[in-house]
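Quick one, probably user error.
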């Protein structure tokens, strides 16, 4: 067995193990949070469900690794250790200086406009101060979310200013000067996709703020007492997710930019996912059979119907595996904030009609309990379920395109 093949197999196993880790953690967390010690049968059932749920993610991780290793494996396998690291620094102090220099150059590359960086940093600090005052006086329940979200936005804006080139138009691939987070015209995701991302993030932030103002806490029966609607850990996760979606919507990585067809396919899938969620919530509100037990069923089936199919079509139309994966990534990034905002609005209507939580119809909890569900369940299912479906769909679409091409070539021969 060659060194390249051996490293490829080891890397594939590592990718599968990494993909399986979140599902193992979910199983442990679910067993630990149970009110009573679970029986052996319950534990076995949970393990089986997590295995079924996690299999697409593990297969997708292996497919992604294989696709990447086919392009880069032979070259990387021929390198020794120092060549992998691009440098060999033996003395300890020199290693620290080398690492610090690399970090500084990555954050503040040469040529950045220091004055713009200073202004962006000052504005970020001022925004943090305003957020502290606003949440202390008007929205105490949103202090953690507001501080983390505004702090991340300020940090990302400052980083974008630091990595931009002085002047306007010198480097169209990075965006320049006052453009801030936005890339130069013609190299960004486009106004429609950026606008859709901004609309979803703005709607999610506004809905969360309103929810915290109206329902900062809720009563729970077991254990008896009052719980906050947005615990600190959940607040941090929501803020990081929204800031990450904003960054991807305005300054996506290069591999998401070239394929216009993938971008539009992803936007279409995102709108379909969000619209389908709204429809599912409305049908459940009207008591339609099969829809009145919450939106969990929709969250599980929609990625299969929308993302798997859409990514396959995008890969076939774009004639590449990368097109399908890119379409799926855009769908997840753009749909996540829209679904959270729609969840918070629909949950209030469900509660007013006595239908319980929007997730599964569970009663006995206050309406504020919907907020944590609206954060965690879309995050878990879109990341661990929809993205693997995108990879599987892209693989199927690319394979179908290759089969049709070989068939046409064979018929011509």
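Nope, works fine. Designed sequence:
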């Amino acid at each position: 067995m060659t060194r390249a093949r051996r490293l490829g197999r080891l890397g594939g196993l590592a990718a599968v193990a990494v993909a399986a880790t979140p599902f193992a953690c979910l199983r442990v967390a679910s067993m630990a949070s149970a009110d009573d010690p679970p029986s052996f049968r319950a534990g076995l059932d949970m393990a089986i469900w997590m295995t079924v749920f996690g299999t697409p993610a593990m297969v997708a991780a292996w497919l992604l690794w294989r696709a990447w290793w086919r392009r880069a494996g032979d070259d990387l396998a021929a390198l020794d250790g120092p060549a992998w690291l691009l440098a060999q620094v033996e003395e300890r102090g020199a290693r620290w200086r080398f690492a610090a220099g690399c970090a500084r150059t990555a954050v503040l590359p040469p040529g950045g406009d220091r004055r713009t960086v200073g202004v962006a940093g000052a504005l970020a600090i001022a925004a943090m101060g305003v957020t502290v005052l606003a949440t202390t006086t008007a929205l105490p329940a949103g202090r953690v979310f507001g501080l983390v979200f505004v702090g991340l936005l300020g940090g990302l804006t400052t980083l974008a200013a630091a990595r931009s080139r002085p002047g306007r138009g010198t480097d169209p691939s990075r965006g320049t000067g006052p453009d801030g987070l936005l890339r130069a015209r013609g190299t960004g995701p486009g106004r429609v996709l950026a606008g859709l991302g901004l609309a979803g993030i703005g709607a999610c932030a506004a809905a969360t703020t309103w929810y915290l103002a109206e329902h900062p806490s809720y009563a729970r029966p077991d254990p008896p007492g009052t719980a906050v609607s947005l615990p600190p850990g959940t607040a941090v996760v929501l803020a990081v997710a929204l800031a990450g979606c904003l960054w991807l919507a305005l300054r996506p990585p290069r591999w998401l930019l070239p394929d216009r067809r993938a971008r539009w396919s992803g936007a279409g899938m995102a709108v379909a996912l969000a619209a389908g969620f709204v429809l599912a919530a409305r049908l459940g509100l009207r008591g339609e059979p099969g829809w009145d037990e919450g939106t969990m069923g929709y969250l599980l089936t929609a990625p299969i119907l929308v993302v798997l199919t859409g990514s396959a079509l995008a890969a076939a139309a774009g004639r590449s595996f990368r097109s399908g994966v890119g379409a799926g990534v855009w769908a997840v990034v753009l749909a996540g904030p829209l679904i959270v905002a729609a969840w918070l609005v629909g949950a209030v209507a469900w509660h007013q009609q006595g239908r319980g939580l929007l997730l599964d119809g569970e009663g006995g909890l206050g309406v504020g309990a919907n907020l944590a569900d609206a954060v965690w369940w879309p995050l878990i299912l879109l990341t661990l379920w929809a993205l693997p479906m995108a990879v599987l769909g892209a693989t199927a679409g690319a394979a179908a395109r290759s089969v049709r091409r070989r068939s046409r070539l064979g018929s011509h021969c």
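DSSP finds twelve helices and two strands in the chain.
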